[in-house]
Amino acid sequence: MKYRIIFLIVFWAVNPYFGKAQMSYSEHGTILRFSLKYAPFPHPKRAEGHTYQNQKFPAPQHYQDSSALVFIPKGYHFTTKTDIVVHFHGWYNHIDSVLSTFKLIEQFAEAHPKALLILPQGPKDAPDSFGGKLEEKNAFKNFITEVLDSVARINNKKTLSPRHIILSGHSGAYRVMSFILLHGGLPKNVKEVWVFDGLYGQLEKYGVWLQQKTARLVNFYTKEGGTYASSSDFVTDIEAWHLQHWQGDEKDLTDDLLRKNQIFNIFTPLEHNDVLSKTKMFQRLLSTSPFLKKV
Asked: What DSSP letter does each residue of 215-273 carry, written as one string?
């Protein structure tokens, strides 16, 4: 531990490009927190903050945090090609609140994927779906490269590059994920997208991505979360495109189905903020993903 702390201090001093790094440990693994150049924020379009329903959300409090958290599960062994799950939070949230509320690290650890979990800081505690820099062309590629370079240096590895990438998002995260699918710069690496009661729009961007033979989408929607109509419209589109899909209720969803189908449109009776964690659905998708190896 003593030598690791000395290494981190040196890292901060001689690598200003990568920004500051913090390291902590839990029973589940190692947590790294970086301040990154290619994080979603700050961004010029939110330099003056954001107004929603006549309420002002100033930039210093809501759009200046350039953090990204990386969770490395206990027992994880680095290889040159790295599987990644990137989770984007929704409105009125930040990295620590979603970790606490939805138990993402606990669910991730219990699923035992041989992968890294990355959480970028989006609009902080604000009612805003804007994805900042990650809506720009090739920006997601730059972000992932910066994250993996930072993780490699901390762990004394020469280089890390992405293999399979899964995008996961709750509620308002649908927007930033759609732009990543459109022109994020890693089209062959992004294999799955999990939308937790958030398919409010941008359906055409998801549709273009789904034309890939390996693309896999899991969409959960609720009655009162505002996604019921758009999810129904999306099924109409999927059927017109002649894409294999499964439409049904969460109670009828089996692990065998999850492993077989390409596209899922799943109705859940849960409340909007319960979809991600009440039945440990995040963990279940991690466990059944065909693109993630297990530790």
From this structure: -EEEEEE-SSSS-HHHHHHHHHHHHHTT--EEEEEGGG--HHHHHH-SEEEEE--S-GG
Tokens of 171: 């509620």
Residue indicated by tokens 């899991």: 218
**Residue length, the chain?**
295
State residue 18's pLDDT score. 46
* Cα–Cα–Cα angle for 204, 258, 90, rounded to 5 degrees: 50
Contacts of 209 (CB under 8 A, 6+ apart): 181, 182, 187, 190, 193, 215
pTM: 0.92
CA 124, distance to chain mean position in Å, is 15
* pLDDT, tens digit (0-9, with 9 covering 90-100), for 213-222: 788 999 999 9
Element housing 78 (H / E): none
- Axis crossing angle, helix 104-111 with helix 95-102, rounded to the nearest 10: 60
Per-residue model confidence (pLDDT) at position 242: 87
CA-nearest of 240, 247, 250, 185 to 217 is 247
CA neighbor of 171 nearest in space, from 230, 259, 214? 230
The alpha-carbon radius of gyration of the chain (Å, integer) is 19
